[in-house]
Amino acid sequence: MVSHEIFPIVWLTLRVSGTAVILSAAAGIPLGAYLGLSSHVLARVLRWMAHVGMALPPVVVGLALYLLLSRSGPLGGLGWLFSPQAMIAAQTILALPFVVAIAASAVRAVPHGLAEQLRALGASPRQVRRSILFEARQGMALAVAAAFGRSISEVGAVLIVGGNIAGHTRVLTTAIVLETSQGRFAMALALGTALLAIAAAANAVIFVFQSRTGMP
Amino acid sequence: MHLTWRMAIAVGIALSGACHRDVPSDQTLTLATTTSTRDSGLLAALIPRFERATGIKVHVVAVGTGQALAMGRRGDADVLLTHAPDAEKSFVAEGHARQRIPIMFNDFILVGPADDPAEIRSSSDIVAALGAIAERQARFVSRGDQSGTHRKEQALWRAAGIEPHGKWYLQAGQGMAGTLRVASEKQAYTLSDRSTFLAHRRLLGLDIVCEGDERLRNEYAVLVVSPNRHPNVHFEAANEFAQFLRSPEARKVIKEFGKDRYGQALFFLIDP
């Protein structure tokens, strides 16, 4: 592998994991916040399920998606197996429980006194909810960081549903597996460094967001 | 806050739009193949020529022959390049392909550590060599993945009347290059196709200890997945690929492949 082959791999990694983070955050933050605010028994069951989901083994998600997306499977008509779409789906499923669980915890960590005080001051239920969400913003940023970490470092699921096809579904993690098995350790290390650099840059953005919006 | 959300959604749409261009069409082809054709570098020499000549983009999924055949049986691959004649014949008999088209052959070799603990060096009787390994319980690494190489290895153990098991018999569950690395690190014997071994020899502490036995022949064939069983496969493109592999251009590439880098050809043609 030569250096001009690294760039498409980095770009695909960003596309796949970036899309998975956005999708899981867009669905998971509202859902997690709702579940955190609700004391209904169903909400507690779903919160527990989100915690279980954080331990979902990527290879099991990969296997289940493989069978679903296979041309002989129920979703075979999509033609998604061995495509970036399948990889995005896998990483979204893996990241979503982290977002839901952390968002719910963040909302629940807002002191109870706040809601009571606001209500006493005449705030509407809607205004109360918005204030709680605002107070929980640091936790929401953490939820996004966790989703990103889960997505970008994952190898088992994308290897199974993506197939590690050169120039099409090869991302940094699956490329590292391949390069290591071929004994091309220098290239494997270079790809690993690129992966770390992406993680550092993405978390720097999240970190800056957290400090700018931090408590006075 | 609202602006951030709108931006996030816009970026999401842009990213997923960027992915949408990859939706498979008739101009793409999924080739499921054994790891040896990739690990030796042969596919990298052949596929760009095919893509230039036909405009069809080939997606190579390099797995063991067992998995490649399973992908064909589910209709998840359009064309297969594999090396397990018996398994390929059952694939055709089951109606998943119309015919098995032999393309090329080379041979398997038994490789092992330089100090050769089972004392089989330069034998040409593979069955006797495996017998010596089992008797001395010298470490042996199996692919263990139902690949063509693994099937060949199992057939050879059967021929030797041995059912290999025990601490000395390791199953790597990896492709050929990965298994060779495991064998090298563990200083163990393993069965390899010649092409992958030569392509990686520099990085391995392994020597050839047994070669030249007729039973070590390694034949590669192409299978075009039948549209009768799997209506979604890209049959036309797959057929073109099978034809390309038998074209004078591809045959020349196959015949010459490896001569410059390894001083010898890695594959030999089978006449159509």
Describe this structure in words.
The complex is a heterodimer of chains A (216) and B (272). By secondary structure, chain A is mainly α. Chain A has one domain: MetI-like (MetI-like fold, Orthogonal Bundle), CATH 1.10.3720.10. Chain A is 76% helix and 0% strand. The mean pLDDT of chain A is 93. In chain B, the strands form two sheets. In chain B, strands 1, 2, 3, 4, 7, 8, 9 and 10 form an eight-stranded mixed sheet that branches. A two-stranded parallel ribbon of chain B has the order 5-6. The longest helix of chain B has 19 residues, at 2-20. Chain B is built from twelve helices and ten strands. Helix content of chain B is 44%, strand content 21%. Chain B has two domains: 26-106 and 218-269, D-Maltodextrin-Binding Protein, domain 2, CATH 3.40.190.10; 107-216, D-Maltodextrin-Binding Protein, domain 2 (3-Layer(aba) Sandwich), CATH 3.40.190.10. With 272 residues, chain B is an alpha/beta fold. Classes of the chains: A mainly alpha (216), B alpha/beta (272). The interface between A and B is medium-sized, with 30 and 32 residues.
Task: Give a short synopsis of this structure.
Chain A has 216 residues and is mostly helical. Chain A contains 10 helices and no strands. The longest helix of chain A has 32 residues, at 6-37.
